[in-house]
Design a protein that fits this description.
Layout lengths: L2 H8 L19 H6 E7 L5 H11 L7 H5 L4 H4 L20 E2 L18 E2 L17 H13 L7 H13 E10 L2 H20 L3 H21 L5 H17 L6 H20 L7 H11 L1
Antiparallel strand pairs: 1-4, 2-3
This protein binds heme C.
The site of heme C has 22 residues, from helix 5, helix 6 and helix 7.
């Protein structure tokens, strides 16, 4: 498919998706994809800090470059919660829902093969084509190629690749197939991003920390989109304020943690009080989706 055509497909029009995720959700899968995700149980024996940094990067659109990052697509858009998103659909990239052609010129010209051959998105909890053996570095090498060549991302540091690979290796299936996507799960990802950012700063990886700060601001935006109802106006401005402050946090030890502590004290309780009226609430989301049809 041509680059121009896919550009059109990705650009959300003014009356297009008011929830970012709708950009890549197949018609008919909206409710399930917005309210649920595959459940993931992380290997308890995996190295905690690596997995935290890796999970934060996995949810960061700016780890990927070019069109993917502009369309707010991260690894997690396709590999939902490290597993697979059966409702993923991007025109020109997907065939059936849950498939993607990752060698499309939409994402990068380096590996573009000129063929439209979408493949099922694999569940990363299952053994696949790429060896997960930590001694071989096959997974790290694969992920570097994926980020730089398939998704036009910047060169990741060795530490970022190791963390991302550690997260992928830690992803396991759970006894229950799905879990709810709630305000709590978005806030958990926000915290993981901030804690991951602190860890990367400790290691002197400023670029990595900046990717995670952007991801945290992106997460604040996703939370903001879901806040509707009479109290929404005050919440929007509180979130915008928090996001601006986060962009200005000096990249020194402890500053991100301070920002998070302030956020937990001031903004998080406001969000919790509004959750029942928000698009995290199934009944409210149903009404909202019905009104869009
Ligand atoms: C647009 C959707 C999409 C995005 C974004 C995406 N992937 Fe994938 N991923 C796929 C598809 C489709 C395949 C299967 C490709 C194939 O079979 O040739 C795949 C394959 C993989 C595999 C190989 C699994 C195996 O078989 O062993 C890993 C690991 C992986 N992706 C991790 C990631 C990570 C980490 C990111 C972010 C840096 C990412 N993916 C971003 C769709 C995506």
């Amino acid at each position: 498919m041509g680059l121009a055509a896919s550009l059109v497909a990705a650009a959300p029009s003014r009356d297009g998706p008011a929830l970012t995720a709708l950009t890549w959700i197949a018609p008919g899968h909206e409710r399930a994809t917005l309210l649920e995700q595959p459940a993931t149980c992380l290997d308890p024996a995996a190295p905690g800090d690596e997995v935290r940094i890796g999970q934060a990067l996995f949810n960061a659109p700016s780890l990927l470059g070019g069109q993917a990052s502009r369309a707010s697509i991260s690894c997690a858009s396709c590999h939902s919660n490290g597993r697979r998103n059966p409702g993923f659909f991007l025109a020109g990239i997907s065939g059936e829902p849950g498939t993607a052609d990752v060698s499309s010129s939409f994402f990068s010209l380096t590996r573009a093969d000129g063929r439209f051959d979408p493949k099922p998105i694999p569940d990363l909890a299952l053994p696949g084509k790429v060896s997960r053996d930590p001694t071989s570095h096959a997974l790290e090498n694969f992920l570097r190629g994926l980020i730089v060549e398939e998704f036009s991302g910047g060169e990741p540091s060795a530490g970022q690749l190791h963390a991302l690979a550690s997260y992928v290796r830690a992803v396991r299936a759970c006894p229950s197939p799905t879990e709810l996507r709630t305000l709590a799960s978005d806030l958990a990802l926000l915290r993981t991003g901030i804690v991951g950012g602190e860890l990367l700063l400790d290691r002197g990886d400023t670029k990595g920390a900046q990717i995670l700060i952007k991801a945290a601001r992106f997460r604040l935006g996703l939370i903001d989109e879901r806040m509707i109802g009479p109290k929404a106006k005050g919440i929007h401005s509180a979130l915008l304020d928090a996001s601006r402050q986060l962009a200005l946090v000096p990249l020194q030890r402890g500053q991100l943690a301070d920002w998070l502590a302030r956020f937990e004290r001031t903004v998080a309780p406001q969000l919790a009080r509004n959750e029942r009226q928000s698009l995290y609430e199934p009944i409210t989301l149903d009404r909202w989706l019905a009104a869009r049809r």
